[in-house]
């Protein structure tokens, strides 16, 4: 189980659109600076926002919840925060990074289909760079070290090695940076479903 301060928190821009997630530590820091408010996720006043003072008050008497404890107070871990001034729209594309390729391919070598830890994975150019292949979503797959070495700079037909799934650019979603299922909170669903609908309309 994650330490309370490392739990993920959904971040909304000031238009209440999900833009990314952050750690509870970062969320509390933004709350303390006055750069964000906490969104209440239950009760008759659901979706009410709290500044630091009101969140401290709301946290009093809360039982069976993840809490941050200090000498003078106990503060409930936020589940959703809304930024006070950030009004940029969510990105509708996934940034091309090594880790995001691994996540797209579910940390699975696309040649031998072994699921491996990140430290034992590489990126493979399906069409090698010295044969005109580009470093793009559509030409990069996850490969284990062994398969990557075996394929070397050969074309798929030359090595008789073909990716299990044709590489593609994944569709954007607010939680792309979260690997394991179950890390997100059910209170996020209201905002994530609305965001997916918006993304489909603009696609």
3D architecture notes:
- This protein is of the alpha+beta class and about 200 residues long.
- The protein folds into two domains: about 5-90 and about 175-200, no CATH class; about 100-160, DNA Binding (I), subunit A.
- It is built from six helices and nine strands.
- The strands form three sheets. A five-stranded mixed beta sheet has the order 2-1-7-3-4. Strands 5-6 form a two-stranded antiparallel ribbon.
- A hairpin with a 4-residue loop joins strand 5 (about 65-70) and strand 6 (about 75).
- The longest helix has 14 residues, at about 190-200.
Strand content: 15-25%
What is the number of strand segments?
A: 9
What is the averaged pLDDT score?
Answer: 84
What strand line-up does the widest sheet have? 2-1-7-3-4
Tell me the span between the first and last alpha carbons: 37 Å
Count structural domains: 2
The string of secondary-structure elements, in order, is EEHEEHEEEHEEHHH
Q: Name the overall outline.
A: elongated
Poorly predicted tracts of residues? 196-203
């Amino acid at each position: 189980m994650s330490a309370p301060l490392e739990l993920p928190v959904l971040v909304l821009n000031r238009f209440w659109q999900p833009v990314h997630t952050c750690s509870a530590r970062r969320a509390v820091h933004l709350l303390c600076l006055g750069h964000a408010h906490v969104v209440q996720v239950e009760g008759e006043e659901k979706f009410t926002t709290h500044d630091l003072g009101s969140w401290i008050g709301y946290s009093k008497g809360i039982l069976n919840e993840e809490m941050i404890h200090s000498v003078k107070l106990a503060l409930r871990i936020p589940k959703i925060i809304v930024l006070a001034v950030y009004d940029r729209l969510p990105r509708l594309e996934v940034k091309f990074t090594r880790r995001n390729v691994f996540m797209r391919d579910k940390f699975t070598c696309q040649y031998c289909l072994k699921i491996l830890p990140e430290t034992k994975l590489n990126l493979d150019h399906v069409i090698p760079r010295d044969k005109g292949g580009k470093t793009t979503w559509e030409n990069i797959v996850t490969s284990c070290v062994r398969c990557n070495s075996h394929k070397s700079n050969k074309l798929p037909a030359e090595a008789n090695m073909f990716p299990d799934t044709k590489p593609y650019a994944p569709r954007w979603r607010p939680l792309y940076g979260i690997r394991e299922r179950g890390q997100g909170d059910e209170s996020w669903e209201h905002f994530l479903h609305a965001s997916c609908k918006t993304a489909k309309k603009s696609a």
